[in-house]
Design goal:
By secondary structure, the chain is of the alpha+beta class.
Length: 799
Amino acid sequence: MILNYFKTAYRNLIRHKSYAFINVSGLAIGLAACILLFLVVRYELSYDTFRANYDKIYHIYTQDTYSDGIDYTPGVPFPALKALRTDLPQIKSGALFSSFGSQVTIKEERETKKFIEDNGVFFADPDLFEIIQFKWLIGNPGVLAEPHAMVLSKSTALKYFNDWQNCVGKTIKLDNALDFRIAGVIEDAPYNSDFRLRVVGSFKTMEDTKTMGYTTDWGSTTSNFQVYMLFPDRLTEANVEKQLLALSKKYYKNEGNNKRLNLLRPLKDIHYDTELGNTGNHVIGRSTLLTLSLIGFLIIIMACINFINLSTAQAVSRSKEVGIRKVLGSNRPQLFWQMLTETNFIVLVSSLLAVFLAWLILPYLKHVVSLEEDLSLFNFQSFLFLTCLLILVTFLAGIYPSLILSGFKPVVALKNKINSATVGGISLRRTLVVVQFAISQALIIGTIVAITQMDFIRSADLGFNKDALLLLGGNTDTLVLKNQPAFKEEISKIPGVQIVSFASDMPSSDNNSGTNFAVDHKPDELFTLYLKFGDEDYFKTFGLTFIAGKGYDKSDTMTDVVVNETLLKKLNITSPELAIGKTLRIGGGRWKTICGVVKDFKTNSLREEVKPIMISSKRKRYQLTCIKLHTQNLVLTQKEIQRSWDKFFPDYVYTGSFMDETIERFYQQETQMALLYKIFAALAIFISCLGLYGLISFMVVQKTKEVGIRKVLGAGIGNILYLFSKEFALLILIAFIVAAPLAYYFMNEWLGNFAYRIDISPGVFILAMLTSLSVAFLAVSYKTLKAALMNPVKSLRSE
């Protein structure tokens, strides 16, 4: 019997080719989109879940509460590690320090190899590897107890030495400053890990040499130094939070409403924390994954709506078939399962096409979302998901049409008294069309808002000039510092170079180096001051605007300092001129004079408020060369700069990048979301139009005689177009009324992630509605025009 059902389904597909094409293509596209989204979401949710003790590993971060807000830092002060081990001895604590963009130099007999580690050189102690475990191919975590010991991943050892099995004992130099001995090799972490440690030096080296900014000052924090903990059995998060609160009271200077304390973040939340981030390559919010899952579900719903609408509309032409089957003895359950089997057959055909489409698109998926590895389509999880999806789609799309068809009364069906108005109810099909277009319009509104916000970000006034700014990463060893003045003088003479500055950091970046500070010989202020260091040309190079005072003179050390407007506001200094001449000190250092105030510039991405900033000279921190270029002959100018770089710094790899590209990377996830919105909005419109085209095709067939009579009575082409379009236009307007408030709510929540954002204007909704109406009209215009232009004699005769 089941085989007979499939035969009937196949014959119906062949007999009604146009409807079969619309149903199969709509379902296939929807299923393919769902499969791809499932692969992405499943992959993102798998991050670090393979690790032992996954649910017992925690990261410690810092919360600073001020009278006017709260700041979070993923790092802790350096001395916090020893304090944690002393005050919480029952918990295993491990240190991890990140240094991005470091250079590794390997000197061999015949050649010298140089590598830039953009993914980070890390410093860790042995305890970290008991918390975040790796497979050790050579050595064990204990090797990191010694200073100047280093561990490499297998792939990194192959890259450095072409042989990972015999690399132990060899020497490498980090940033041309520190020598390390290779003491072990670990297996590469999977791509779906936020701890892809490739180069790991012993944390003991930092402590002994006082490098990488290591300090014992409790008032200084850096996001690069992080501590992880492994909870023993029966120890709860709440208990440890209480102990951390006691530790914070003991070591931090908490006064009044201003408090600093350390809190816990479980490993299972780290990959999805867009505020604190992680040490991996990217972060994705759980809300983003939920949005992707919801979009996939809505796309499938739209495809199912197409199927239901076309199936119920097509039921008129199958009424006699149902009547005959009932007369010959078929009962309603048999007819119901026959129709459901036919639906299942169409879904199976669609799924095969969907898998093929997903397989074709999969290699290009990494250009849309942040994926380093190729995802596998053919695995057990994908098979299980597809099976569940097929069952769900079969029932969603098939149950209602099957109930309608199997419920025909034989007498009515055989007398051909069933028409499109009585099959399933016009109101149901209208409701489904409204739902379909409400989804489409919500996605269109989301797309317009996302694109507009990203355009706003790209064109926003950052408070400095980011155009044609070339950034060269380097180091601050003695040789580099010695050659910096001569290098600056030489490249300043290159015709395409406007001005050159050395700095610790560009004005806007992900770096947040903060410290305690005091003003005018008063006690320390109860909020963090963030630091940037640059030479006397820093302000001209980046186009920073002075609103009071001026920049400092040339100096190798801190003399005078420049601050921003936000710092004055937090200090309740009402006029920039009043700040000039006041004294300021950081940590427990000497007092410096404020010589200038610059207009606020965006210190981080536009997701964050501007931070209180101090800028001063400190040559030992100048690891960045910032070069303002003329826009003509950029390629030739860069070649000249590289020649000078190789001349003065032959031991360092030339790494040039433009500042606008660096800032663009701040918003990689938002840019990808905007692209995803575009893609899925286009898919939603396409599926909606498929459904409209199918329905209008059926309506044209049903109203062939009516069109002929109207034309005989004098109706023109416009009248016929109006006849077929008015209902759909009304339904789209109703869909817009449903979609607009929902889209506004969700996109307003998304924009809440930005400190600087657009307002959602009425124009966004008008554009979305006009887009839907225009596309819908195009979808139905071909068939309606064909019906309107048909000879009425022919249309009447065809009836």
